[in-house]
Every structure is written in structure tokens, then in C-alpha cells.
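Changelog note: in this version the structure field was regenerated for every chain. One regenerated record is shown below for reference.
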Amino acid sequence: MGLEIRDVADSAADQDAWFRAVYTGFLTAEPPSEEQLAERRVHSDMSRAQGAFDGDRCVATFRSFDQELTVPGGGVVRADAVSGVTVTATHRRRGLLSRMMAADLAAAKERGDVVATLAAAEFRIYGRFGFGPAARSVEWRVEKPLAALDPRWTLPEAEGTVAFVDGAEARKEGPGLHERFRRTRAGAVDNVPMYWERLTGALRWGPDTWKEPFYVLFRDPAGQAQGIAIFEVQDAWRDAQPANVAKVRKLFAATPAAERALWRLLLSVDWVTEVRTGDEGDPDALLPLLLPNQRAATTISDADLLWVRPLDVPGMLTARRYSASGALVLDIRDPLGLSEGRYLLEASEAGASCVPTTRSADLTLDTGALSALYLGDASAARLTDAGLVDVHTDGAPARADALFRTGRRPWCPDVF
């Protein structure tokens, strides 16, 4: 029997085979139990899941679901979120991913999705499908004894309050808080339904043993939750002295006051000598600026995370706001032909328009380079110097940077 790619939404047996293939593809040692498989069928959106089958065995997986992506200015665009992409080692280089990706992206464009998104584990895979890295993640490490923070620091009452809460309170306040946060930061996405249940341990699956973390909420003077930090402490002693490491699982805030307060709280916990943010941290965090000695905060890792793929160029470019007024003609090259064309972008404080045009191009770039520019993180001048953008009009890269760059870098704190 040959290889067959098929939807798995209507077959429990196919879904179980799909979930097992995900574990094999990601090289997870312990496969899911029958109970865990049943949980996944209940809690996972498999309506757009595809699997490649060699007989009864699933050997490649692919899934997408509806998502909203925040763009500069606080608007959102409809996104086709790609997840669960694996190909078993025995069936590599047979075009399985290419076939599933092409079918999914064509369907997404037909639905009217503006972009496709994914959180990339490997860099080299997705460029050939028209994706480009659009937002990065950073892991910070702070050596607390070197930070030189005033140990007497307390939060002024006029700014709000910080308090430890339990998982139930985090689940109650979390969804509304995340909605407020994601509208403030380009690159953020909406939560899937089971997000807070998994984050707080109410829903558990996988081989990892659950360890209950600490939850800290920041509330503004009106009592509304505006920030949360979720962290665990790794117990350690050195020379009969506590040398604990606080590792952040999640920290995000809807206001600068909340972000400042949460970082200062984490850096004020007794017995903790080192704070690590985890590898999904904010590349533009206020953290180092809050330290009297900024060298106490070092970057352990800095990597691409959120990748974006244009499906509707006029739709994506008119959804965001721009830092200046101006016009650019962009000649977009698409390896799959889904969004190729020449477009006139005209931006002002009142908004933006983008239409197909026959005017001469100012810049020629592929969809991956457009994605890198889209949320404001990349520089058109730098991409030009790297040979990734062709310039046809003097000064066009500078004009592009004046339009596209943003005050704070984009960030997606959630892997999906």
C-alpha cells in the first residue's frame, strides 16, 4: 500500500495514530497513554489536521487552526496558525510536508486568511514555503547579587499591588489579562481554549512531571489585573548559603507599570540569587533598564520564534499602522505564487491603502523579507545590505524603515 495523505478529523483511530506520530517525529521518548490520547482528542482542534499514512501507521503530521495576530497599532489580522509539523525519520525527503503545506496554505487563502503563522523549531525548513522570521525570543539571566537593586524596594501604592495567588485565581484572571496584553504588542496572538488550564496544571498531559509554580498578579489601583508572572524555584545551596534559581515560565504585562513591578518583585525574592526568564522571553524587555548595574543581565539565547507568511498583501499592509507618512511600491516574489505581485502602499496618520499597481517598483523582495519587515523588527536597510532586498529607487530602504519600524520590538510569548 502506498503513502496516503488524508484529513484525520473524522476518525478517532487516525487521530490516535497522528498523536503517536507527533511523539515519534519530535523524538519524545514516552508515547502518550490511552488516557492521554483520549484527552487530546477532546481538547485539540483537529478540524484541519492532516496525516500522511503508510498503511495504518501515521508517518507525517500537520495541523492548522484559526488565530488572530496583533499588528503594529493594535489591530489584528486573521491568521492560519500552523502547528504539529513532523515527518518521521523513515519517510523524510518524499515531499510529504510540501504537499500538506501547499494544501493548507491554498485553503487558508481561499478562506480569506491574511497571513499564516508558526513557531519554528528549526530555521531552514520554512523559508521555501514563503515564511520569514518576524519576531524573536530571548532568554535573560540576571545575577541578582550584581544587580545592585535597593533591597528596601517596595511598590508605591499609587502604581498598584502585587500579590501571590493560586492557580485557580490565575485561571480566572488570566484570559482577560491576556486579551488586554495582546492588544498592546505586535506579534502577540490569541489564546487557544485550553491555554490557561495547561499553564496552571488543571489539564496535564505529556511525560513531564507537573511541578506547581508560583503565580504573581499585578493589579492597577482600580483592581484590574494588568500583569502576571509565573515562575518556579530550583532549590540550591552553596557554601551553606541559599543560591536558588528562579525560572520564569511566563511573564507578560498590559502596562509598563505592571512590567516594572513584576520584574522588581522577582528580583527581590529572598534566597534567590539568579533569575532566568526562559527561552520565550521578551527581546525588548524593560528588565535590563531597571537594574543599576545592567551588566548583571546577560542574554543566554536570542532566536527566531514567530514566523509569518503573507497570504493577502493588501489586507496585511492596511491592517497595521505606520510610523510616518509616505508611499512605496513593493514588488513581492512568492515561491508558491499565492501573494506575488506589485503593490502600491500609501500610509498616513489616517491609515493606509495598498492596491495592485503597474508603477515601477521601489523595492523587490520575497515574502520572507516582507514578513521580517511587517511587525517592525527588521531593518530594510540591513536586509538590503544582506542582499535580501533589491533597491530600484534611491532612498527606498530608508523610507521603508521610516514607515515600518516600531517603538518596541514585536514579541510572541506563546508557542503554539
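Spot check on this record: Residues 115 and 310 are 5 Å apart (CA to CA). The radius of gyration is 23 Å.
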